[in-house]
Design a protein that fits this description.
226 residues, alpha+beta, Glutaredoxin, 4-stranded mixed β-sheet, 51% helix
Length: 226
């Protein structure tokens, strides 16, 4: 049987991406899937679709952290978030490109996620990343120099633009064939899809999307101090 490919779109800014990554490799083994990770810039997705990130809405950020601590406790692992959040994820994302990390890509992604979200590491710090890269078995000087190159920066931009073209609007996102799933809570639905038991009625979804809008929200611009 030819292996199907699971495309995983992620940014290290998202704890939900970390949670789903922890489950993805066992899932791919169970269903003979080829895992293809795609580092993307979450901020660019938000800008394109006109959204705020969870950490940019104060009560949502608080709710996010409550969920994360509960989730980690229930699933038996340490949740110790990055030194600061949000942070600049670009160096870590560039390191995670297949063109940079090669055959060590999944190993390095696991190491970066774990360092950031279970060990509280500052993933925007070059020296912190240097230690993670070395521990993953890569030549730190070589790959850290590579992520400063224009071609590497362009590759991350291309990954993000291609994700947007696929309809990716947030992280984590999973695409299998033409089916897109978004969010850590979609893993159960992915399994049903892989088992050929997807309960989704695509025609009903199409009918719902074709309905006219009854009202539109007026976007109000925040006013600064008088």
């Amino acid at each position: 049987m030819t292996a199907r490919t699971l495309h995983f779109y992620f940014d290290y800014l998202s704890p939900y991406a970390y949670f789903s990554w922890r489950a993805l490799q066992p899932l791919c083994q169970r269903y003979n899937l080829t895992l293809e990770p795609h580092p993307v810039v979450f901020g660019k997705l938000l800008d394109h679709w006109g959204q705020l990130g969870p950490a940019e809405v104060v009560p949502k950020k608080a709710a996010l952290y409550r969920y994360c601590y509960r989730y980690a406790a229930v699933h038996g692992f340490e949740f110790n978030p990055p030194h600061c959040h949000p942070f600049n994820p670009l160096p870590a994302l560039r390191l995670s490109l297949a063109a940079v990390s090669g055959e060590k890509q999944t190993t390095l992604i696991s190491a970066i996620f774990d360092a950031g979200w279970s060990q509280g590491a500052d993933l925007s710090c070059t020296e912190t990343l240097r230690g993670i890269v070395s521990a993953a078995g890569l030549e730190a000087d070589v790959v850290l120099e590579k992520i400063t190159q224009t071609d590497t920066k362009a590759l991350l931009h291309k990954e993000t633009e291609q994700a947007i073209a696929q309809g990716v609007f947030g992280v984590p996102t999973f695409i299998i064939e033409d089916a897109l799933f978004w969010g850590n809570d979609q893993l159960e639905h992915i399994e049903l899809f892989l088992q050929g038991k997807d309960p989704l009625d695509a025609e009903k979804v199409a009918q719902m999307l074709a309905r006219e809008r009854g009202i539109d929200r007026k976007v109000m611009q925040k006013k600064g101090p008088a």
